[in-house]
Every structure is written in C-alpha cells, then in structure tokens.
Amino acid sequence: MSKVFIASIRDRDLVDSVFLVKEKIMAMAKNGKPYMTLRLMDKSGEIEGRVWDNVDQLSASFDKDDFVAIRSKASVYLGKMQLIISELVRISEDKVNLADFLPESDRTIAEMEAELEALVETFSDQHLKALMKAFFDDPSFMALYRTAPAAKGMHHVYLGGLLEHSLAVSRLVDAIVPLYADLNRDLLVAGALLHDVGKVREMTYLRSFDYTDEGKLIGHITIGVEMLQERISTIPGFPPELGMLLKHMLLSHHGQYEYGSPKRPKTVEATILNYLDDLDSKINGIRTHIRKEGENQGRWTSYHRLYDRYFYKESYSGEEECREVADELMVPEPEPVPLPVAPRAAEAERKSGDTVRKGFSNNPFEGLQKNLDLF
C-alpha cells in the first residue's frame, strides 16, 4: 500500500493508506447507533475520519497512537475535508516509515545546532555563558531539546519546533537590542533560549504530540524554573540577582495571568521577551494555517478559531492585480476629484460679502437697524 499524504487528499478521492491515530472518540448518533470520530495525522497534516459501521468491532482493534491502514472516501463536510472509513486494520510500527508520520522543521537539526553553538560563543557574560554550556553541552538534554515541538497545537507543532522557535526569538533579540540603549543583551538571549526549556519534559512526541503527566500537573514554566535552578547550582559564584532576573523572565514570558503566566513582566528584558515570544509564535501559527490551505481555491483561508478571523492568503504582486484584490477586499473605487476653478471677480466679491454678513448673523441689532433705515 503506497502512502497517500493528507495534504494531497481532494474531495471524493478514494483513500487507501496508513495514518497515525492522534485522537479516538466514541459517540452516539441521534438514532442511538454508535459512531467513531478519529483524528488522523501524517507529516503533511491532519484530517478527521468517521466510522459509521462495525464501530464496536473496529474500535476494539486499535487505540490512540497506533498506526492504522484504512479504506475510505474523502468528503467535504461543513467546509472541511474528512474521510468516511469503511475498513480499518491496525499496523505494527515496524511496517511503517516513522518519518512519514511526524511533521518536522523545514530547517535541518544539524543547521540549527550549528547556529545554537555559534550563538553561545557570542555571550560576554561568563556566568550566563557557563549556564548555556551547562544546558547545551549535555548530550541527554540536547537529545530532547533538538527534537521537541514547541507546542501541541498553536505554533511550531513539529519535531525541532522548540529549537527553531528559541533560535528565532534569539534573532529577534539581536535585531531589537541596537534600537534601545542599556538593554542586557546576554540576559535577553539566555531568556530566549531557555524560556520554553520545560517543554522537553512537558510534552511527549514519540508518536502524536501530547502532554506528559508532569506537563499536565505542573506545566513547562514551573518545570523550566526547576531545571534552571538545577543548572545554576552547579556554577560556582553565579550571581543570585542574575539568577532571579532570568527566573523572572521564564515565569513571566506568557505576559498575563489569564495566559498561564505566574507573573507579569516587571523588567524591560522580561517585557521584550514576552512580546518577541508572542510575535514569533503568532507569525508561525498564521503561516502554518495559510500554508496548509495554500492549494485550496480562493484568496482566504478557512476560519481560524484561535485568532477568531480568516486570513488573506495572497501577497501583493504588482499594480496590475491591485484593483482585483481591492474588489475582493471590498475597497471602494476612489472617486475622481475635480480640479478647482477660480471664481469670477464679481462672484468672488459677492461670496466675500456673504462671508462677512454671515459672520454677523447673530447680531441682535441687525434687524432693528434695517427697520430704522426705512424711515
């Protein structure tokens, strides 16, 4: 059975292929008949699958994070592609190519590790440089840090996503530092590289991406602060205040309490980290959403629930298409503005007189004076 990737599936396609089960939900239809909803994935994306027949029998044969070979037909329902599954069989892991099922960064791990190594060498603060080496010279830690996704569903949702995101925030730091005086550049870069470090233990990503028990109960922010303190304690003479400032950056990088941040940013560096982290996360999330729908017809994406909007997919490509784009965006055609015409002298004088008279229109004695002039 040849692999059919999710991104290539079109309406009414007959799809016989192997997918990874990300979610499995049993439900009951209005007529009392059970059905099953699956979330299937491969490295190109995700798609919903529905099983309407032999539900109990098929459900007992597999579970979440299993590989399944399915026979199905693609159908668009409420604007989204789904697979109506007629046959399903569990497949053992040794029969599949794992690289086909887990999305990964467009950048190679080797390329990103080389960038990380060069970045650590730019630190002038020797305490922070020693801290970076305490993390990134540890092979067991790097095995996790280079592989982990940055999130389960919001941004950089692929292997290598955590490293890619951390490096991107670091580059944003170096872009903004020259614009503002007296920023602690090394502290900012350290925060950029470590702000999500707890995700190496918060998430599981050997199959579908999900949260570990530790991630669900404690969360990556608290885990990250614990990991930071463990490494700091191994560095002789590490300044307590420097450690406190870096911990504050980890604790506050989500910005607001309602976003899961134990603290709000209370230093300039922590504030910058919060905004740069949010900026890179949003750009990646929006680009991923647009890219997933790049081959769909139309200039607009489907509705993005997280950002509560649709996104325009096209880029500006020259004046010849400007009017067509404006029509789709409902930008009104600009009305021509007539050139001013100089008034004739008499008309100008009359208008000038009107202006003067209008200026005294509220004079209470004007009417009385006109009546007196009659006598």
From TrEMBL:
Record-linked InterPro entries: HD/PDEase_dom, HD_domain, HDIG_dom, YhaM_exoribonuc/phosphodiest
Keyword Hydrolase: yes
Annotated GO biological process: rRNA 3'-end processing
Single GO term (MF): hydrolase activity
TM spans (from-to): none
Claim: Hydrolase is one of the keywords in the record: yes
Gene3D superfamilies xref list: Hypothetical protein af1432
Stretches assigned to the HD/PDEase domain: 158-291
Biased composition (Basic and acidic residues): 346-357
Region: Disordered, residue numbers: 333-364
Keywords, in A-Z order: Hydrolase
Any one Pfam family match given in the protein's UniProt record, by short name: HD
PANTHER family noted in UniProt: 3'-5' EXORIBONUCLEASE YHAM
Name recorded for this polypeptide: HD family phosphohydrolase
UniProt organism field: Geobacter soli
